[in-house]
Structure formats: C-alpha cells, structure tokens
C-alpha cells in the first residue's frame, strides 16, 4: 500500500505496531459519540489491526501522521468494492478543529483518483456537522439513502 503525502500530514499504511499510539489518540469517549462503541485498549486495537492488515485487498487503512512532530492523530480508510470506495475518517479530539480530517481525506481522494474507482461514498450521522463539512470539502453530497442511522453521501471520482 502507498504512503500518501499532504502538506501537513503523511498517511502511513496501517501497521499492527501503530496500536499503542492509536489507543491514546482514540481514547476520548466523546470521540465515539458518532462513530459508536467505546475506546479500545491497545491490545484490542492490536487485534483489530492484525485483522485489517491481513484482510482483503479492498480494505485500505492509513494512520494520519502530523509532520510537525511525527505524532499519529487519527486514521482514514477506503473500503474498495468493485469500482466504489467507501471512505471513513477519524481525528483524535486534541487535534480536531485544525482542518486535519479534511486535509487527510482530500489526500485520500487524490490517491483514489489514480485507482480504478468511479464513485466515492461516506456514511455520516445527520448530526455530525464536522464530518459533513469534510465530506462536502471533497465533493461528496448527501443522498436520500440511509444506512444504520447515517446518511449516504457520494460523488463520482
């Protein structure tokens, strides 16, 4: 999998070794208000990352590294099925409000543009204004379709 670069960030292909640092990044219970669940322990993340790294080739996962201090601050995902990529992004609470999710997602969409993908999709909770703003910034638009209480956003590549 490719490393993806952005002005302030580097998207690094997910490795099991990222689990310890990412457990801290994702530790705030408030972060899970829209994504569900509860913060995972480092061991739980290690197990999840083992499955993701070994998973189907269509599971693409990157951690977001902030260039200024080499710290991990979140993750982006693209689940590719045929010619559609479903995107997801999460930035840890301490780094929110700085445009990092938008920058990381734009970099990911730029990478997707070089793949054999026709459509990008994201599912966003209707009350999650920050994620809606990220989706809009990369050209996604809400549809009238819902899945598990979230609105489907999509755009052609």
Structural class: alpha+beta
- What is the overall pLDDT average? 96
Distance between the termini: 20 Å
Morphology call:
globular
* Low-confidence parts: none
Largest sheet data:
8 strands, mixed
In percent terms, what proportion of residues is strand? 25-35%
Order of helices and strands: EEHHHEEEHEHEE
**What percent of the residues sit in helical stretches (DSSP H or I)?**
25-40%
Number of helices: 5
**Strands, count:** 8
Spatial ordering of strands, largest sheet: 1-2-3-4-5-6-8-7
Please, what is the oligomeric state?
Answer: single chain
Cα Rg: 15 Å
Summarize this entry quickly.
This protein is of the alpha+beta class and 157 residues long. It contains five helices and eight strands.
Report on the architecture of this protein:
- The mean pLDDT is 96.
- The chain has an eight-stranded mixed beta sheet, sandwiched between helices.
- It contains five helices and eight strands, in the order ββαααβββαβαββ.
- The two termini are 20 Å apart.
- With 157 residues, it is α+β, with helices and mostly antiparallel strands.
- 30% of the residues lie in helices and 34% in strands.
- Strand 1 and strand 2 form a beta hairpin.
């Amino acid at each position: 999998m490719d490393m993806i670069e952005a002005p302030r960030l580097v998207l690094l292909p997910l490795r099991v070794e990222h689990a310890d640092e990412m457990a801290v990044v994702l530790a705030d219970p408030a972060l899970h208000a829209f994504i569900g669940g509860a913060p995972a322990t480092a061991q739980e993340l290690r197990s999840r990352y083992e499955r993701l790294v070994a998973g189907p080739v269509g599971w693409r996962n990157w951690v977001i590294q902030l260039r200024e201090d080499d710290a991990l601050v979140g993750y982006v995902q693209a689940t590719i099925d045929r010619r559609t990529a479903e995107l997801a992004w999460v930035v840890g609470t301490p780094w929110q409000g700085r445009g990092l999710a938008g920058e990381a997602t734009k970099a990911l969409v730029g990478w997707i543009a070089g793949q054999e993908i026709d459509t990008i999709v994201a599912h966003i909770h209707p009350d999650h204004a920050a994620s809606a703003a990220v989706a809009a910034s990369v050209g996604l638009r809400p549809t009238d379709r819902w899945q598990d209480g979230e609105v489907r956003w999509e755009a052609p590549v």
